[in-house]
Design a protein that fits this description.
The chain has 22 helices and eight strands. By secondary structure, it is an alpha+beta fold. The protein is globular, with a radius of gyration of 28 Å.
């Protein structure tokens, strides 16, 4: 609940700090909070959060604090905020051209001090008041010799479009020039590989290193990927060994075929490639007892060598593949991955659950497998049913004490799993020496048992199925992880039953 979070994390602390702020003479009397780029969150989630944030801010009329929020235009949000009594709007197009040009001129002169004044003026004219253009071209020109800078400026200033979508076209021309410089001199085979590096940098589920990107593309070292990032310094940068892009407009450009043309990234094709890569990496890296645990009589937490063994046996690229294969699978609409998925479910999925448990990520297994079961045309297919069965087993293991000692994935959870459906039936055939258990006909075992200190009067699931909420006789309310049964929060003091 975003509103509750904002009340707890923003409103309540601000009100509670009033006396302390007033008692400190050196403290500022007023504060300004700037909120930027929430609208760049994928889908409509950014605008939803922004709407909730603005509602909470408006309803409380906080003193001594103002909020400066920037966003792309979104008519529904604008109409809603327009109903507020205490608000001010300012649209970017209201900035006078002279004012915008003056700011850009100052910026360019400061960042590129070696440029002649006439070159600065050409760039100011070309930028047409678009600051992201000025910022990008500054990074692009910074690593060129002054003579090269003048030639590039001449070319860019002569390529100005005159149609109505000028601002988009300005960036497109600049991005085309940057990519042509980075990739233009390579033969087709080497060009394709460098483009795949770039596309992978943009398509990974989380921002990651050039080494992981290279390994996803089946290359042993990151030399070429490092070179790609270096050549694209105007649009990409590295922070904490992870590659980021300066502005979302670059990714938008590459994902739009009509704009990027020969540099277009076909998302469906590339996510299919990355899906295959993740499953291939897991096929090579996952195995039974991957951390060489010597005994099932020791809890994970009591095994002093386990952390080191997990780090040695589960490499960063294997960890990425285990955590994010579903991200790439869900973004690939192709039906050509059926054989890969069926092979994974035959046995490797058990080793995957084992690895996820060792990494402390077993709570993700159920959701990942269920999302795979509902993907695209797989609904109501045998493959979808197998993924759903694997998801139920993941909950059965993750929500039981067996998960505290990873070997019990096999000797306890798999041995006592009552279902005789595929793929679990095949899994048991691979381990004929595990104990055999029989449950009475029609007496199904629960997937998970959650013990409460007091009798539970009411139980409900969250809307997304990820949490369970229980209300107990002692007046407490507990929140549980629906995949693992772990207690996440206890709220005391409720008087109504």
């Amino acid at each position: 609940d975003v509103d509750t979070q904002l009340e707890s994390l923003l409103i309540a602390p601000w009100k509670a700090s009033k006396l302390a702020r007033c008692a400190e003479p050196s403290a500022p009397s007023q504060f300004l909070i700037i909120i930027d780029a929430l609208d760049e969150i994928d889908g409509h989630e950014g605008f939803k959060f922004l709407r909730s944030l603005l509602n909470v801010i408006h309803s409380h009329h906080l003193q001594d604090i103002k909020f400066f929020v920037t966003s792309r235009r979104e008519q529904a949000l604008e109409t809603h905020v327009n109903s507020f009594t205490d608000r001010e709007f300012y649209h970017l197009e209201w900035v006078s051209p002279k004012e915008a040009q003056a700011d850009i001129r100052t910026y360019l002169s400061t960042e590129l001090p070696s440029l002649h004044s006439d070159d600065v003026e050409k760039l100011v004219t070309t930028a047409a008041g678009l600051f992201i253009y000025a910022a990008t071209i500054t990074k692009y020109l910074a690593k060129h010799h002054p003579q090269e800078q003048r030639k590039l400026i001449e070319w860019l200033s002569g390529a100005m479009p005159s149609h109505h979508s000028r601002m988009t076209a300005l960036l497109d021309n600049l991005y085309h020039q940057i990519l042509s410089d980075a990739f233009g001199d390579f033969e087709e085979e080497f060009l394709l590989h460098r483009q795949q590096v770039l596309f992978t940098l943009l398509c990974t589920a989380v921002r990651t290193s050039t080494l992981i990107v290279s390994q996803l593309l089946e290359h042993d070292n990151a030399d070429i990927a490092d070179e790609v990032v270096q050549h694209l310094h105007a649009v990409l940068y590295v922070e904490d060994n992870k590659v980021f892009w300066y502005h979302k407009s670059f990714a938008d450009f590459l994902f739009d075929k009509t704009r990027s043309k020969k540099f277009w990234c076909h998302l469906d094709d590339h996510h299919r490639l990355l899906t295959r890569s993740c499953f291939q990496i897991m096929k090579k890296g996952l195995q039974f007892n991957v951390a060489s645990i010597p005994s099932s009589f020791v809890f994970n937490k009591d095994n002093p060598a386990l952390v080191t063994m997990v780090e040695q046996r589960i490499s960063p690229i294997l960890k990425y593949s285990c955590q994010h294969w579903d991200h790439h699978l869900l973004l690939s609409m192709s039906n050509s991955l059926g054989n890969v998925l069926e092979e994974f479910l035959q046995l490797r999925v058990l080793f995957w659950i084992e690895a996820m448990n060792l990494m402390g990520l077993n709570g993700l297994c159920d959701g990942m497998l269920r999302r795979a079961s509902t993907r695209g045309r797989q609904k109501k297919s045998a493959l979808a049913n197998h993924f759903a069965e694997a998801a139920r087993f993941a909950v059965y293991f993750g929500g039981s004490p067996a998960s505290l000692s990873t070997p019990h994935l096999y000797i306890s959870a798999l041995a006592t799993w009552p279902s005789n459906q595929e793929p679990c039936k095949t899994w048991k055939n691979h381990f004929p020496r595990i104990p055999a258990f029989a449950s009475p006909a029609g007496n199904e075992m629960p997937l998970m048992v959650i013990k409460t200190e007091s009798s539970a009067n009411v139980v409900a699931f969250s809307s997304d199925g990820s949490h369970i909420v229980s209300g107990s006789w002692d007046g407490s309310v507990q929140v549980w992880d629906a995949s693992t049964g772990q207690e996440l929060k206890v709220m005391d003091g409720h008087t109504e039953r």
